[in-house]
Each structure stands twice: as structure tokens, then as C-alpha cells.
Amino acid sequence: MLKEAMYKRHSRRSYLREKLRDEDATFLKERIHMYNQKHGLHMKLVCGHPEIFKGFRNSYGMFHNVENFIMMMGNSRDVYMQEKLGYFGERLILEAVERNMGTCWVGGTFAKDALKPYVKEDEKLYCVIAIGYTAHKKTLKEQLISHATRRRGKTVEEMSDITAHSPDWMKNGMEAVQLAPSALFKQPVRFRQEKDCVYAEVAHTDSFEMVDLGITMLHFEIGAQKGTWTWGNPAVYEKK
């Protein structure tokens, strides 16, 4: 279940030297194709392409043995594109975690120029998702990086106006949001309730915060299990 994967997921930056198993690669390609076709995205699984993370200049030494990744691309004129990529990219991540794969959102520490041939003229490459197999425990380097980049997570009260008197489904949704990854762990999405609706919003639409918005929308939806989102900033979650 995606809810179990949500609790199991951790950003992984060090990978084993193992090719993706055929059944895992096929599964990812099928899911990517489905999301692309239904929602106008251009996500692409690339395997055996390690050079975009090699060298300090590309990854600042934060990634090791990354040979497979998912390119997160889409029409640059679609105002909801980053939001949708965040939502469906995180869904792919949780589905990969269910299959015991490691993953990590990567916003800028990779060689973007090497991937230009994959990007269509009217599209933009927003980020990538590193994916592969990892050791059961994080390496010491991963632990140090996690400690350096992660700070105390925000409370539900800091992220929203949801209170102890709010419905349980709203509280459950916000608890799931606390588990969502975000750029530099800033947790920039602000939630507010209005009757049976929840609004999610970020302050900066020209940044990675819109991807963070999509990621947290999925987490809230998995936790709340009561309704669906409408794209936008603010995005609107309506109870069924």
C-alpha cells in the first residue's frame, strides 16, 4: 500500500552497482507511460547513464553510483506542470519503494546539459529522480548528508490552521504531509481549512516549491482518504 511506503520512504543518495531488474524496469516504464498519457507529462526512465552524477562539479559529492533516474519533463506553458510532476513523481517513488527500490528527488546537482537531447523544444527539464537498489542501512556519508541538510520538521500547527477540533481526516492528511520530502527540507506548503475543503498553497510559483506542492498534495490525499485535489495554487482538496 502507498500509505505503508510513505512511512518506509527515505531519500537515498548511495546506490549498489546493480542494474534494474527487468521486471522493475518494465513496471516503472508502464506506470510512467500511463501517467504521461493521462496527464500530459513527459517523464522518462533512463538506465545506465552514470555520467550526469559523476564528479564533484555535478553532484557536489552527494551521490554515489547513481546510474538510473527518471527525467521529470513537461510542457513549459502548462502552469500546473511542476505541480503534476511533483504529485505523480512522488507516486512513482512510493510505488518503487513498495518494490524495495531506493529513490531521491534531485533538483539541481546533476549535469543537465548532458540530458538536452531528451528534452523537446517546447518542454523543460525540471528535475530528476534517482532510482536503484540500496543497502539496507544508510552509509555513513548518507547519514552525514541527511544530518546536514535536514532540520527539525515543522509541526502541523506551523504548516496549517488545522486544530484539535478539525475532522480526523484532516489531521490524518496533515500527519502524512509531515512525511513528505521537500527541497532542502523547507516544507514550504501552507494548508488551511474552510468547512469541508482544504487549501494548499506556496509563496513562490517560479521555484521548486511548485513541485513540493504536488508532492505534499499526494501525501495529504493518502493520509486523508476522503476526497480529491483540484490543480492550482492554492490547490483545493474537496471531501467526497
Question: Describe it for me?
Answer:
The chain is of the alpha+beta class and 240 residues long. The protein has two domains: 1-138, NADH Oxidase (3-Layer(aba) Sandwich), CATH 3.40.109.10; 153-237, putative nitroreductase (tm1586), domain 2 (NADH Oxidase), CATH 3.40.109.30. 36% of the residues lie in helices and 20% in strands. The chain contains eight helices and eight strands. The strands form two sheets. A four-stranded antiparallel β-sheet has the order 1-2-4-3. Strands 5-6-8-7 form a four-stranded antiparallel β-sheet, with helices on one face. α1 (2-8) crosses α4 and α2 packs antiparallel against α4. The protein is globular. The two termini are 21 Å apart. Pfam families: TM1586_NiRdase. This is Putative nitroreductase TM1586 domain-containing protein. GO terms for molecular function: oxidoreductase activity.
Mean pLDDT: 92
Main sheet attributes: strand count, strand direction, barrel closure: 4 strands, antiparallel
As for the number of domains, it is 2
| N→C terminal distance | 21 Å
Counted by DSSP, the helix tally is 8
Biggest β-sheet: strands ordered side by side in the sheet: 1-2-4-3
Protein name: Putative nitroreductase TM1586 domain-containing protein
GO molecular function, one term: oxidoreductase activity
Pfam families: TM1586_NiRdase
Domain Putative nitroreductase TM1586: 2-224
Features:
240 residues; alpha+beta; NADH Oxidase; 2 domains; four-stranded antiparallel beta sheet; 8 helices; Putative nitroreductase TM1586 domain-containing protein; oxidoreductase activity; TM1586_NiRdase; Nitroreductase-like
